[in-house]
Amino acid sequence: MKPSVRTQNVTVAFVSTLLIMLLALQQFSVVAAPVAQINFTWNPISATTSSQPGQTILVNANLQNQGATDTFNITSTAPTGWTVTIAPSTSVSINANGNQSFTFIITIPATATLGTYQINISAARESTPATTALFPILVTVNPAPPTPTPVPTITPTASPVCLDGFEPDNFPAEARRIDILIPQEHVLCPTGDEDWLFFGGVAGKVYTIDVPVMRPGIDVSLELFDSNFNRLAFNDDFFNRDPANPNPGDIRPRITVRIPADGTYYIRVRDVAGRGGVSYAYTIVLLDESNGPTPAPVESVCLDIFEPDGLPEQARLITSNEIQENRRLCPTGDADWVTFFAKAGKRYVIYTDTRRYRGPNTVNDSTVAGADTVLVLTDRDGVSILDINDDMPGGNTLDSQIEFTPKVDGFYFAQVKNVGDIGNQFIRYDLVLLLCLPGQTDCRRPDAPLPGLPANPATPPATAVPINAPTPTPTTKP
After folding, report:
1. Is this structure's pTM higher than 0.85?
2. Which of 41, 46, 118, 224 is deepest in the core (most CB within 10 A)?
3. C-alpha dihedral sign at 12, 13, 17, 20
4. Mind listing the pLDDT tens digit for each residue in 161-210?
5. What angle do CA 222, 466, 469 make, to 5 degrees?
6. Residue 362 burial class via C-beta count within 10 angstroms: exposed 0-12, middle 13-18, buried 19 and up
7. Could you tell me where the beta strands, DSSP code E, fall in 246-344?
C-alpha cells in the first residue's frame, strides 16, 4: 500500500473516533432542568356537565394548597361567545394546607351549536417558580326539548309566563330558603316583581349577600330584615369588590353584616326602577365567614342611633331624667359625648348602667363582658375637666356615676369611654341623667335596673328602620 493511502485511512479513523467520543461526552454532560413542583391541586380534577343553548350552569370545585401560604390567580378560557364568572374572586390568598371553594357560573350562548366544548380553569400562584393547575370542564350542549304545541284557548293573546323555579316568592310568607354557598338564579318578572328569600342566621357570624351576575337592563337592590321585619341593611350598588381596583361602573349590590341574634332573616330583591321581564335574570349567593373568638366589628352593626358622637362638637343632647338606651362602645377607641343644660344650684346625677346587657355570664353577674365605663364631666367649653369617675362609689359595679351641682347656668358636656379604649359591638349600656328633687336623698343609680326595661334585650341595632312589610300568615310559614 502506498504511504499516502495509508496516511489517509489513519486520518479518517482518527476523526471518526473523535466524533464518537464527543457525542458520548455531550450525552453524559446534559443535566435535566429542574421541574417546578405543583403543590396545589383542584378537587375534583375535572368536571363534566351538559345543558342547552342559552342556559346558565354552575360548577363547584375546591383549590387545595399543599404548600406555603400563597396568592393564586384564577383565569378561564372558554369558546367564543361563552361567559364564565368566577366566584367569590379571581384572586385569593390560601393558607398553607388550606383550601378555597369556587363556583364557576357558565353561560352558554343562545347560538351555540350542539356538541361538546371544553372550558379550562387555570390556577396560577404568584410566587416563584410560577406554576399552574388546570381544571378542565367538559360541557355537552344538547338540543332543547321540543316545544309542545299550544292548546287553543279563548284568550286571543297569551301573556308571558314569569316563572323561574322559585315563584311564587313575592311576599315574606312566600319566601324561599337560600343556603350557604349555593347560588340561585332568579328572574324579576313581570314589571314590579320582587323576590323574597330567607335564611337562618347565627348570632355573631358575618354573612355576605352578593349578586355576582346581573343581566343587562336591570339594576337590583338588596335589603336585609330581621324576623320582625326591621330593616338591618340596604345596598344598591357595590363597586368596591376589588379594593385595589374599584369599578364605579359595577352596579351589582352586596351586603356584609354581622348577625346580632339567632333567628330567621329575610332578603328582598327588586329593581330600583320597578322594571321586570322574562330576561331580567340575576344570580344571588349567600356567603358566611368566621373571624375567630374576637371578631372584627362590622360598621353597620357597630353604629347606634346616637352616632356620630365621638367629639364634643358632635355631642348629642340628653335632657333631664332621660334614659338613652342601647348605646354601644364600638369600635375600639370609641367615645360617646353628650351635652345637657344645667341650672345653677340644682343637683344632677349622670350615670351609666350595663346591667341589662350582662346576659348569661355568671362569673360576675353585675357586669357585661368587656364593659368598664369611665365617665368624664367637662365645663361648658367641652375641654376643662370638672370631674372623673371610673367605678361609682359605694357600689359593687364597674358602672360610673358623677353628682354635679353647677354654679353657673349653661350647657355642660360628658364623655363615656371604656377602660383601655376597648370596644366592640357587644359592649352596650344605658346613659341616664337625673335632675334631683329638693331634699331628695335617693337621687342616684338604683340598686336594680329601671322598671319596665327588658333584661338583656336581643333586639337588632338601634339603626334598624321598621318598614310596612306584609305580615306573614301563620299557616303559610316558609
Report:
1. no
2. 224
3. positive
4. 677 788 888 889 889 999 988 899 999 988 888 999 999 998 888 899 99
5. 70
6. exposed
7. 254-258, 263-271, 281-289, 316-317, 322-328, 336-342
